[in-house]
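This part of the workshop introduces the protein records we will be handling. Getting from the letters to the tokens is the skill we practise here. An example says more than a description, so a record of this kind follows:
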Amino acid sequence: MTALYGPLAQSDPHGVYEKLRAEHGTVAPVELEGGVPAWLVLGYRENTEAARNPARFTRDSRIWRDFNEGRVPQDSPLVPVLGWRPDVVSVDGEEHQRLRAAVNDTLAKFDRHGIRRHVQRYAGQLIDGFVEAGRADLVAQFSEHLPMLVFARLIGLTEEQGPKLIEASAGIVKGGEKAMEYNNFIIETLQTLTRERRRTPAHDLATWMVQHPSGLSDEEAANHLRMVLVAGNETTTNLISSTLRMVLTDPRFRASLTGGLMTLPDAVEQMLWDEPPLMVCPARFATHDMQFGGQDIKQGDLLVLGFAAGNTDPEIRPDLSAPMHGNRSHLAFSRGPHECPGQDIGRAITDTGVDVLLSRLPDLQLAVPEEQLSWTAATWSRHLDALPVQFTPQRRSEPDQEAAATRLVSQQPVSNVAPAQGRVPAESATPAAPAPALSAAADAMAAIAQADAAAEAEARSRRGFWSSLAGIFRRK
């Protein structure tokens, strides 16, 4: 069977998917780390069917035949990803509805303005770390840190816990012999947090989880926080990196961006089609013997959903160069009852973070030829190794401005009495000012004061946004 790990899968995962599609059709036999057999779903329609039909394809790994018959060891690096846990992604039916209600209601409490304020603050702090140098690696110095800083704040963790959690989160997704150790570290950290929040409530996700009427236990609450932290950080980091690379390198979008025909959220959506943050999604298990995608699937077989392969299925996307503006029918966040509940938070972090960066550094450009960029792929996702850029050096934020903005932002709750519903519109964010002397944190103060500004102020903000984007491509 074709391996979804190792040198070939790491260097050219899309090539592996297309080879499998040519040989096997819409469902192909593959091998996961440790020689574990699985079925990779390649077709768009088959991915949709598997995601929407828990009666045939359950998330409950307790029926995983190879694991139950001892062919997958307890310490396998696949277990932290595929093994059963007391959380919403591991169950179906009534239990899923109970846990999903807790997750949906809790995430809905986040105010879109509050989230964007915190993204602006942390983005400004990260940019201050390299703004005077005139050069940076936007992967190592920006996109790998921004999501975890925001998610740690929303969950209720301290900023000091961020670096270790970033390492542990990446280690789980990457796999390897330390995957279980990383998973245990995250669970222990979050169990400590949930116990603290039962004693001392606060304005954060951990508090709302333990207080929800669904009656989550400490173990259930900690595992749901783990889900938000690991899945949210991994997917948003990849989405930020991909969006930045596209804005800086892809000629298909330069004319439409500078001409005002495409918004930054449109660019994010295109990346969700072309480079979904999770290329392969774990997992489904067949509830009975069946024919599926031309293959004989047995009860308890493991299936993994090929989001990247499904998004490029020639039956629904014969021309991959055609723009997908406004089309949200991609598979990036799955479908059906297990569709990602935090997808709009990931979108908000991405387009606000990229907006702040482009506004703060309007002459940002790639520092190496595009063909020198490289990626490292694991079974589940692909990471841009580095994104070297150069720009005109600027002054760091003034300490008094930063301190004042930090105090003001930290006093603002990230929840509203009326929960935010639906997609977060790009227009709700106040872009950071492009002037070198102003910090993103200072812009956050302006965003707080002007969140409900008059229409003229919003129009000025939008014009400033387009001017900043146009400045990136003026050199062309």
